[in-house]
Amino acid sequence: MPEKLISPEATLLDLAAAYPSTQDVFRARDAQAGECLLCNALFETVRAVAERYGLDLADLLTDLEKAARRDADAA
To answer: Looking at the domain assignment, is residue 65 inside a domain?
Structure first.
């Protein structure tokens, strides 16, 4: 199994910069969060964002990993 690209301790800023496709994952959860995650939680960790906004951490990490893999494979 390949090494994980996404850590729950990574900040949204780090992920958005390293793997641009992860921005779509965050945007897809803006409605559930009730605000723009990349606007208001850019410096928070994925784990903190999931807790703060009531997002399912496992699902979020899975979707982020898929997006990051697409970017890594395209590079």
So the answer is: yes
Compute the distance between CA of residue 20 and CA of residue 58 in angstroms, rounded to an integer.
20
Between CA 52 and CA 2 the distance in angstroms is 30
5-49 pLDDT per residue, tens: 999 999 999 999 999 999 999 999 999 999 999 999 999 999 999
Instruction: List residues bridging with 45 in a β-sheet.
Output: 11
Strand locations in the chain (E): none
**51's tokens:** 């807790």
Quick check: pTM over 0.85? yes
Domain span holding position 26: 12-74
**What does the alpha-carbon distance between residue 68 and residue 51 come to, in Å, rounded to a whole number?**
22
Residue type, 15: L
* Overall domain count for the chain: 1
